[in-house]
Amino acid sequence: MKATATKPLPPQYHLFMDSAYAIAEKVELITPxxxxxxxxxxxxxxxxxxxxxEHLKVESYExxxxxxxxxxxxxxxxxxxxxxxxxxxxAIGIFTAYEKLNSLLRKIHxxxxxxxxxxxxxxxxx
Length: 126
What we know:
Blueprint: H1 13-23, E1 26-32, H2 44-51, E2 56-62, E3 78-84, E4 94-96, H3 99-109, E5 115-117
Parallel strand pairs: 4-5
Antiparallel strand pairs: 1-3, 2-3
């Protein structure tokens, strides 16, 4: 398959992530972040699977991927995620990088719905 100006190649990173999870108990990856917003060309069912995975958390998020990888344009930014089969971090649920929006979402959805906020890059706390 060949990419063209009007039809880019389909994403592959979600397949790589699933393969890494299949062979390791603990996995830390830097990938495009579009799935955190249920956006992009990855399958929507896969995006939802990741957002509902209680073993996955976002360590860092950078909306401008060129700050991490100069001379690149990765729409939606990049994220460092950490997945650990032995820990329950709670599902990501709704992901946003804006605390004011998180506050509004918590009011709308109530405290039962998890809203994950991510601030500055990088943050490597576990």
